[in-house]
Amino acid sequence: MSGRNLPPLSLHIPEPRFRPGDAVDFQDFDMPVAGAVPRPEIGSDPATMRDMSYAMVRVLDADGRAHGPWDPRLAPETLLKMLRHMALVRAYDERLYRAQRQGKTSFYMKCTGEEATSVAAAHALDYDDMLFPSYRQQGLLIARDWSIVDMMNQIFSNRGDRLKGRQMPIMYSVRDANFFSISGNLATQYPQAVGWAMASAARGDTRIAAVWCGEGSTAEGDFHSAMTFASVYRAPVIMNVINNQWAISSFSGFAGAEATTFAARAVGYGIAGLRVDGNDALAVYAATSWAADRARGNYGPTLIEHFTYRAEGHSTSDDPSKYRSADESSLWPLGDPIARLKQHVIALGVWDEEAHAVMDREVAEQCKAAQRESEKLGVLADGLKQPFDSMFEDVFEEMPWHLKEQAQQMHDERKAAGI
Amino acid sequence: MSEPATMNMIQAINSAIDICMGRDDQIVVLGEDVGFFGGVFKATEGLQAKYGKTRVFDTPITECGIIGVAVGMATYGLRPVPEIQFADYIYPALDQLVSEAARLRYRSAGEYTAPITVRTPFGGGIFGGQTHSQSPEGIFTHVAGLKTVIPSNPYDAKGLLISAIEDNDPVIFFEPKRIYNGPFDGQHDRPVSPWSKFPESAVPPGHYRVPLGKARVVREGGDVTILTYGTMVHVATGVVAATGIDAEIIDLRTLVPLDMETIAESVRKTGRCVVVHEATKTSGFGAELSALVQEHCFRSLEAPVQRVTGWDTPYPHSLEWAYFPGPVRLTEALKRVMQD
């Protein structure tokens, strides 16, 4: 110790409010009023809209009524389509989670509670806009009406898996749906999306890019590199941060949430920032739509923080009751995105409980039927479904001699061992 | 094709990019200082004026961003040729190279690819200290899905770079900066002769390729095979001339994919092998070469394979010439391998 007459320094280690066993109380949650936040012109100078990074865009109130300038005023059929997509995502997750628990595959990740952040965003974008997802954006594919049988084939690494069993479950890649190959290394898709958007702008195209990451991975260098590039070149890209409060067992404080919002990352880069209630499908739709118009108008990128809650574990590999209070999920003050949109369409008079129950049965049956079809092509647990040689393909466009030699060696050794 | 021009390596590299950009408007160049200024080594000089700012542009100082953006541009359908100003700066881009560019074709089963050529000056001998001298090629040859190319003269530099840019897989193109202006035989206290005095400076101005995966026999010989690349090709040439040892010198030109045929044929003939590179020894590419020679030519070998490499230390600024595996060390290694 220095011996100087100074108070000792102390190191701050963030701690979440509620740990297992703690009584959860969100009384002091400052609930932003639906409809209260203004909607800037799409070409606004980011410097004039910094407040947006600290407020929260909400459209739906506690009674399911839409309010304010951000109400996207969607046609009932669009609202119902979004609702069905969200319900399908939830049913799909239930189905595949159970399949993993039954030992049919190695891994699964649900997005329960976060369905709006993908589904509503996809509805607000054009189909030919390019999506750079993180690992919890299955809702994008489902909202683009991609085949859930094809998605399940990937989960089961079966004979129908277009990715030849090379990727862990949920790491989809669907070029035909303009959905980029998912990486397990976090935030790498951020600069890639910016690069894609820069290319689109450089070529005089009209398509834009959208990218997703969790609040935890905003700490990655890739995120900040991407923000710098997006700002410097005014790239037509929408950068989504899904703030679901938890990165496995680390609460958002370890990514900086105690100090500021994630939308506020935009301020330092001079990028338009929006913070939205991620459990409000209308708010997500409206913010995405605003950002898309802005990008298409050559006004540059937008960072959107979707404030939401990861209602279940990070993946099938962790038990959230070991690190957070079990009550957090049920008491989450912003509710459940599906329940809230349901309440809204009922309030509009275009939906009712019975129709909802029918829909729930239909999407469950749709998933069940899809699983039956997918399982005809095998499941991971039944053994290897891909030809051995496929392991050596696609490392390079043309197989070099050393890979041919290794493929031959594998065959020879298996033959010699009598396999 | 018109008559060859006399070019140094920088001019040859510039010409390769120019030719490729003229033929394919999907090719874009990005990197720190590559635009208006033409790069700190002038490899991209004049290209922005010729092809415009949306095809040749300066970037923020984030190598992770440069390569990440290049991967995204490639996904769009462009063919980016990013420059990393010094190979020593490439580490912030490792995740984007190793986990992304290298594996994109594989993990998406061919849906997405990354036809990117990363140009980066490497190697020491310019008093660049620890952060402007490294030879990190072994880090990249260890990665499945990357090709690694290292030219040793202007003719090869242009032909190999054109092949790399036209290749549909990601290529790391290491440019030995010590020999940009002239070959260097390791005699650091003597003046360097410019490339114009050597036949390899005769570079066709138009389009031609030197294929990836093909080594070049620089000098035929019967007593020992020297496997090397980049700057060390010239050190080996100088030592062989000075000692009179009848060595066969092979310039590998491409480390991945490697021209094993040329290597094996030579070692089977000579029965002895010395591997020479500037990079550190442990887990360097020389270890791979040594193992491959042993696997393919064991019965022809009359002596253990010798490695002449940089020491396993950081590149020291003032002790540069004690670190650099120069003529003295190669001469000693050749003596050892010939004695056995």
Topology, pairings included?
The complex is a heterodimer of chains A (419) and B (340).
Chain A lengths: L75 H26 L13 H10 L5 E3 L5 H6 L4 H8 L33 H14 L6 E6 L6 H13 L3 E7 L2 E2 L2 E2 L13 H5 L2 E6 L3 H16 L5 E6 L19 H5 L5 H12 L4 H23 L25 H16 L3
Parallel strand pairs in A: 1-2, 2-3, 3-7, 6-7
Antiparallel strand pairs in A: 4-5
Helix pairs in contact in A: 1-2, 1-10, 1-11, 2-8, 4-11, 5-6
Chain B lengths: L4 E2 L2 H15 L3 E5 L15 H5 L4 E3 L4 H14 L2 E5 L10 H8 L2 H4 L9 E6 L14 H5 L5 E3 L4 H13 L4 E6 L25 E2 L12 E4 L4 E5 L3 H12 L3 E5 L2 E3 L3 H11 L2 E8 L4 H13 L8 E5 L9 H4 L3 H13 L1
Parallel strand pairs in B: 2-3, 2-4, 5-7, 6-7, 10-11, 10-13, 13-14
Antiparallel strand pairs in B: 1-8, 6-12, 9-11
Helix pairs in contact in B: 1-7, 3-4, 8-12, 9-10
Characterise the protein shown here.
The complex is a heterodimer of chains A (about 425) and B (about 350). With about 425 residues, chain A is α/β, with parallel strands linked by helices. Chain A has helices at about 75-100, 115-125, 140-145, 150-155, 190-200, 220-235, 265-270, 280-295, 325-330, 335-350, 355-375, 400-415, and strands at about 130, 210-215, 235-245, 245, 250, 270-275, 300-305. In chain A, the strands form two sheets. A five-stranded parallel beta sheet of chain A has the order 1-2-3-7-6, sandwiched between helices. A two-stranded antiparallel ribbon of chain A has the order 4-5. In chain A, helix 6 (about 220-235) links the parallel strand 2 (about 210-215) and strand 3. In chain A, helix 1 crosses helix 2 and helix 5 (about 190-200) packs parallel to helix 6 (about 220-235). The longest helix of chain A is centred in the first third of the chain and has 26 residues, at about 75-100. Chain A is globular and about 70 Å long. The model of chain A has no long low-confidence stretch (mean pLDDT about 95). In chain B, about 35% of the residues lie in helices and about 20% in strands. Chain B is globular, with a radius of gyration of 19 Å. Chain B is α/β, with parallel strands linked by helices and about 350 residues long. Chain B has twelve helices and 14 strands. In chain B, the strands form four sheets. In chain B, strands 9-11-10-13-14 form a five-stranded mixed beta sheet, with helices on both faces. In chain B, strands 5-7-6-12 form a four-stranded mixed beta sheet. In chain B, helix 3 runs parallel beside helix 4 and helix 9 (about 260-270) crosses helix 10. Chain B has helices at about 10-25, 45-50, 65-75, 95-100, 105, 135-140, 155-165, 230-245, 260-270, 285-295, 320-325, 325-340; strands at about 5, 25-30, 55-60, 80-85, 115-120, 145-150, 170-175, 200-205, 215-220, 225-230, 245-250, 255, 275-280, 305-310. The termini of chain B are far apart. At the A-B interface, helix 5 and helix 6 of A face helix 3, helix 4 and helix 5 of B.
